[in-house]
């Protein structure tokens, strides 16, 4: 025999030959030969080493326990002192009644939707990862929800959680921002058979996500093809010279041609533009020659215009000098001054007017 003491918030179960024979509560007790004592903390779940179903045959023990039974499609959320404690899976689970520190919430995993009473912050804990599916929609995205292959609705930005089960959930995300698309290297023949390579760009935004992602497959590829065909159709109707003269209008024409078709794809064309027109080597050489000829013609025109202006200025000066002898004399003296600056020495001989001799000398 030995004496044992059961303290507050504990309980003792005495077994003999594998059978529960006594329940010991707070106080001192004697344990006899071949008896085994198991002490349990009443603030913890009851997890005996003997099968729970067998122990529940004892009516006295059964009265002290709260049994929590879960089906295969259920889990139990256990709270201790109103704080999350653990998750219970299918089966029977027992807790002591005398200490009301535990509370329970049963979750039906066959239901996709989360109970609003469950704190969403718990879903970030590792213990929940095997039970929930998580999808994150960013602020620049929208999501399309498909359940078992059927479209159910749009998802705005935020975090979404569903219980894991045999129901298939698929979320397709799409960007709500403006998107730029390049349409490069389009080799197109003009009406006069000039072969060009054109680089084009468009800017679009998805405005109807159901049309874009549900009713149309690869809407972006369809949009690419639409703009490509419109570009080829428009450029093919113009001669090379007409294209060069109206190249600034291409963007507005393509935008008008494709706007309605784009809306049927669930997108709105915001802007488009011509980036490059790449000419073949032969045409590029001809264009350079034309440019050189034009520049030469412009240079000749400017030269002739300047010569005409200069001649007209000389004529006007001559007329003034003819009408005014004093102006003529001043002009003579101006030229004599310029010539004298370049002469080191002048020799004069004989009599007569010195100024007249100089004039005669310089006029030779």
List keywords for this structure.
single chain, 364 residues, 3-stranded antiparallel β-sheet, 9 helices
Question: Could you describe the 3D structure shown?
Answer:
It contains 9 helices and 18 strands. Helix content is 34%, strand content 35%. By secondary structure, the protein is an alpha+beta fold. It has helices spanning 52-55, 59-64, 209-215, 219-236, 240-245, 250-264, 281-323, 325-340, 354-363, and strands at residues 2-6, 10-16, 19-24, 27-31, 35-41, 65-70, 74-80, 83-88, 91-96, 102-108, 132-137, 141-147, 150-155, 158-163, 169-175, 179-189, 195-206, 267-278. α4 (219-236) runs antiparallel to α6 and α7 crosses α8 (325-340). The strands form 7 sheets. Strands 3-2-5 form a 3-stranded antiparallel sheet, with no helix packed on it. A 3-stranded antiparallel sheet has the order 8-7-10, with no helix packed on it. The chain has a 3-stranded antiparallel sheet with strand order 13-12-15, with helices on one face. It starts with a strand and ends with a helix.
């Amino acid at each position: 025999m030995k004496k044992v003491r059961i303290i507050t918030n504990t309980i003792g179960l005495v077994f003999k030959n594998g059978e529960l024979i006594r329940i010991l509560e707070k106080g001192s007790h004697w344990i006899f030969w071949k008896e085994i004592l198991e002490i349990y903390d009443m603030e913890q779940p009851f997890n005996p080493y003997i099968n729970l179903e067998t122990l529940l045959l004892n009516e006295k023990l059964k009265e002290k326990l709260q049994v929590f039974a879960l089906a295969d499609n259920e889990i139990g959320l256990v709270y201790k002192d109103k704080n999350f404690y653990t998750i219970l899976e299918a089966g029977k689970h027992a807790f002591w009644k005398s200490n009301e520190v535990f509370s329970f919430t049963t979750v039906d995993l066959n239901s996709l939707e989360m109970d609003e009473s469950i704190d969403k912050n718990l879903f970030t804990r590792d213990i929940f990862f095997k039970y929930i599916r998580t999808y994150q929609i960013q602020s620049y995205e929208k999501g399309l929800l498909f359940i078992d292959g059927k479209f159910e609705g749009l998802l705005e930005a935020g975090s979404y959680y569903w219980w894991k089960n045999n129901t298939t959930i698929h979320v397709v995300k799409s960007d709500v921002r403006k998107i730029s698309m390049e349409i490069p290297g389009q080799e197109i023949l003009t009406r006069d058979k000039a072969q060009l390579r054109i680089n084009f760009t468009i800017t679009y935004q998805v405005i109807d996500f159901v049309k874009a992602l549900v009713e149309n497959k690869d809407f972006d590829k369809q949009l690419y093809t639409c703009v490509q065909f419109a570009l080829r159709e428009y450029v093919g109707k113009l001669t090379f010279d007409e294209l060069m003269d109206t190249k600034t209008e291409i963007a507005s024409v393509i935008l008008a041609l494709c706007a309605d078709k784009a809306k049927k794809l669930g997108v709105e064309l915001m802007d488009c533009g011509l980036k490059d027109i790449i000419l073949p080597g032969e045409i590029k050489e001809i264009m350079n020659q034309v440019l050189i000829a034009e520049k030469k013609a412009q240079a000749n025109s400017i030269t002739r215009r300047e010569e005409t202006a200069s001649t007209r200025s000389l004529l006007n000066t001559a007329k003034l000098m003819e009408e005014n002898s004093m102006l003529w004399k001043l002009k003579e003296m101006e030229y004599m001054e310029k010539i004298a600056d370049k002469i080191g020495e002048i020799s004069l001989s004989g009599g007569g007017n010195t100024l007249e001799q100089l004039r005669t000398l310089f006029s030779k």
